[in-house]
Amino acid sequence: MHAWGTSLGSFVFVGALAGVVLFSTPTDVQAHRLTPSQASERVELPGRTVQQPSGVRRDVRPTPAGSTRVVPRDDAAKGSLEDRIQAILHPVEEPTMNPMPFDVPKTISAYDDAIIGTPLATEEQCVKYLLAYNPAPNISCTPQQLVSFYYQEGAREGIRPDVAFAQALKETGFFRYGGDVVPSQNNYCGLGTTGGGVRGAAFATPQLGVRAHIQHLLAYASTREPQEPVVDPRYMLVRGTYGDNTLGAWEDLNGRWAVPGHSYGQSILSMFRAILSE
């Protein structure tokens, strides 16, 4: 009798769960009638945006670094009735993402001349602008990959990637080179070149070359250490020279990054604004 009562209780519990799932899940007809704005929602998380089905609400409040939060299993909205019940009974833990450890001001104008900020141009605009002037750039990866590296490394350090890419175009002659640096060096900003045939720094991969470029800009613009190990061979030289002082604008690189460079920063910003027109 006791065993029969236990089985009956389990049956009632599972039946109740099934009722909750069945009555809370929209039918195919109801789902079909959802408007595009209802069909999905964008949830902003630190450092990323998650696209998720409408009606699935997740807790996106910040949690302590390294902690986890319990969320419904992804298969809770699909599969058999038994799968959905198991998903409710056994939720999985999803790791949270730590926010960036520093603030980056949002760039809102093409005439903002700050070195630190967010991009205005898209990666596609950067690629299109490059190929319009040089359909066959002399680089060891695709133009799309190189631009992607600038956006990845720039976002990591808070450096504006679209303007940094414009600087690379200026320094390399749209990746035609012809000066002291040769393409195989993956040196896109003239790091370590002093003229007279001095080739300067070389990097094993295009991404490391981009990382060194971004880190060198960071050395001028901030006292904050890079998020990745330093690969810029002149990073400590700049930091040791400037100490607590920093340069805030691209025009401040005049006579410093390039000598005499009277309009060096202005020319970079001019190329950046041309990218925006693509």
Extended strand count: 4
- Main pleated sheet: 2 strands, antiparallel
- What do the pLDDT scores average to? 79
- The CATH class of the largest domain is identified as Mainly Alpha
Unreliable spans are 1-8, 17-76
- Beta-strand portion reads 5-15%
Strand order of the largest sheet: 1-2
Outline: globular
Q: Round the Cα radius of gyration to an integer and report it.
A: 27 Å
- N/C terminus separation: 79 Å
Write a brief caption for the model.
The protein has 278 residues and is mainly alpha-helical. The chain has helices at 2-24, 28-32, 36-39, 81-89, 123-133, 143-157, 161-172, 206-221, 235-242, 264-276, and strands at residues 40-45, 48-53, 68-71, 92-95. It has two domains: 38-99, no CATH class; 123-276, Lysozyme (Orthogonal Bundle), CATH 1.10.530.
What can you tell me about this protein's structure?
By secondary structure, this protein is mainly alpha-helical. The protein has two domains: 38-99, no CATH class; 123-276, Lysozyme, CATH 1.10.530.10. It contains ten helices and four strands. It has helices at residues 2-24, 28-32, 36-39, 81-89, 123-133, 143-157, 161-172, 206-221, 235-242, 264-276; strands at 40-45, 48-53, 68-71, 92-95. The protein has a two-stranded antiparallel sheet with strand order 1-2. It has a two-stranded antiparallel ribbon with strand order 3-4. A hairpin with a 2-residue loop joins strand 1 and strand 2 (48-53). Helix 1 packs across helix 4 and helix 8 runs parallel beside helix 9. The longest helix is centred in the N-terminal third of the chain and has 23 residues, at 2-24. It is globular and about 75 Å long. Residues 1-8 and 17-76 have low confidence and may be disordered.
